[in-house]
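Lab notes, practical 5.
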Amino acid sequence: MHKLRVLIADDHEAMRRLLVTILSVQFTVVSAVPDGKSLVEAALALAPDVIVSDVSMPQMNGLQSMKELRAKGHDIPFVLVSIDSRGSEEFIRQGAAAFVDKMDIQDELLFAVRSVSENMASLSQIADRQVKAA
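Output from the prediction step:
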């Protein structure tokens, strides 16, 4: 069975390591990069199944990276993560497959990536899980 290939982008090294630790339990992490420019380069070179990206990063943020890849004809699903969830609905409207608040990363990230891979992720599914967990 094919293990889902995930590319991670976050400008904070400790968060990148945490994301790798969480995701490598169930998925193959193909790379973990520190900024949006590196994300685009790695995505084009490695062709991941899903990208998990911080929203706020230097050189190019997560949304800009997603748009850049879309403009180049790559429709790789993005799971955006951020400490600030206020823009989550807008991230989904702009094309992200899912959003995970970094405060809930341990509980929600595996669910979000798995759901995206099954083409079932939506903001309401993730929100429902968060409400039930509270």
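Observations recorded by the TA: The longest strand covers residues 28-33. Residues 130-134 have pLDDT under 50 and may be disordered.
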